[in-house]
Amino acid sequence: VAVDGACLTVTSVTSEYLVFDIIGPTLERTIAGAYEVGKRVNLERAVQLEGRIDGHLVQGHVDSTGYLVQSVKEGEYWMMDFSIHKDVYALTISQGSIAINGVSLTISELRQDCVCQIGVIPFTFQHTNLGDLKPGDLVNVEGDLIGKYLSKILSKRGV
Question: What are the structural domains, with CATH classification, of the chain?
Answer without folding.
Answer: 2-47+57-156 (2.40.30.20)
